[in-house]
Automatic annotation (TrEMBL):
This is Uncharacterized protein. Residues 101-110 have a biased composition (Polar residues). Residues 84-124 are annotated as: Disordered. It comes from the Eukaryota.
Length: 124
């Protein structure tokens, strides 16, 4: 990822707007990328080329407000309802995992408070 970040940063510094959508966006809007907050949306080994380009095209379709110049490979319209449903299920599962972590944390804190109250009660 660092190599790609360096490429984009160089394109912005050299105002290479014709070869870099990131550079064009930065030049046109004055936005400065937060390079230290860059993260992968998804990963696959380099030899899974087709899988990567399909995932990229799906993400572009699911998030139409972006700075990509092309839409990637064509994703059949008939696939989109299934893709959207799968994404919603994955989003709910992620939210559930986050929610259960929060709930576990809340339960843990409640148990600690109860233990403290018992100890304080015994002292009295």
């Amino acid at each position: 990822m660092q190599d790609r970040v360096k490429e984009h940063d160089r394109d912005i510094r050299l105002v290479r707007t014709e070869t870099s959508a990131v550079s064009e966006h930065a030049h046109n809007t004055g936005h400065k990328p937060l390079w230290n907050e860059v993260k992968f949306i998804d990963r696959d080994p380099y030899y899974y080329y087709y899988t990567r380009i399909v995932k990229e095209a799906i993400n572009i379709r699911l998030h139409p407000i972006n700075i990509n110049r092309d839409s990637g490979i064509e994703i059949p319209e008939a696939w989109m309802p299934t893709i959207k449903k799968t994404q919603q299920q994955e989003s709910r599962a992620t939210a559930d995992r986050r929610g259960s972590k929060s709930l576990n944390w809340a339960n843990r804190n409640m148990n600690l408070k109860e233990k403290r109250n018992k100890i304080e009660t015994k002292k009295l």
